[in-house]
Design brief:
The chain is mainly beta. 6% of the residues lie in helices and 52% in strands. It has 2 helices and 13 strands; from the N terminus they run αββββββαβββββββ. It has a 13-stranded antiparallel beta sheet. It is globular.
């Protein structure tokens, strides 16, 4: 049977890789100059609870001493709009939603990148098949939903045809300029599901890159 060219079905298969049971991951976020020196770092704690009636994911950024810096919670009630709750400071006090396109903690990473929220956008179209790092991929074009705060006007995504995992994503602004690239460097199997382990984020233009590495769960 030939591979599916149904873009929404391909995205659904990617989302199915996320754990349904409660799971908390810890990741290091490190900003490096082009020659490799680390110039900034922080920690991300990512808590998934996607198997309940209201699938929820909470992303908390912490400093080197595990003090909270800011937090974004996404709730996706069935048949209802996405709910986003933002908090900041060591007490994680509720605050207005920030610019989701802006770099977080002086990195190359935006909230849209960290949450991979474009995987839930409607309106994806199939752009063809491509080979990326020797792997056969489905390429999708995903337009940002009208009226939703987003970092990009559209995202182009390369998805591993067999594993249903993102290998690369590029975000474009309304003028068609590429503003960020996310490259998945490695995966790990967590409770029987493949999940990213290392992701590199590059802004255009930028004198540095950011690496997110999952180290604990």
């Amino acid at each position: 049977m030939p591979p599916s060219t149904n873009a929404p079905a391909i995205l659904a298969a990617v989302r199915d890789q996320f754990p349904r049971e409660p799971l908390t991951l810890t990741a290091d976020i490190k900003v490096r100059r082009t020659r490799g020196a680390i110039i900034r770092s922080c920690v991300a704690r990512i808590a998934f609870d996607l198997g309940n009636d209201t699938p929820t994911a909470t992303y908390t950024l912490l400093d080197a001493f595990a003090t909270p810096l800011e937090q974004l919670t996404l709730k996706r009630p069935t048949g209802q709009p996405l709910q986003m709750i933002y908090a900041t400071g060591k007490e994680l006090t509720n605050a207005p939603l920030p610019d989701l396109a802006a770099p977080i903690q002086q990195s190359d990473l935006s909230w849209t990148d960290l949450t991979l929220s474009f995987l839930w956008w409607d309106g994806a179209t199939y752009a063809g098949e491509d080979t990326f790092r020797g792997e056969t991929c489905d390429v999708l074009e995903i337009a940002a939903p009208a009226g939703e705060a987003a970092a990009y006007a559209r995202v182009r995504v390369w998805i591993h045809q067999r594993l249903h995992m993102i290998l690369q994503a590029e975000g474009y602004n309304a003028d068609g300029d590429r503003v960020r690239r996310l490259s998945i460097k490695s995966f790990k199997k967590i409770r029987g599901r493949w999940m990213l382990r290392d992701m590199e984020i590059e802004r255009f233009p930028s004198p540095h890159k950011t690496r997110l590495t999952i180290r604990d769960l």
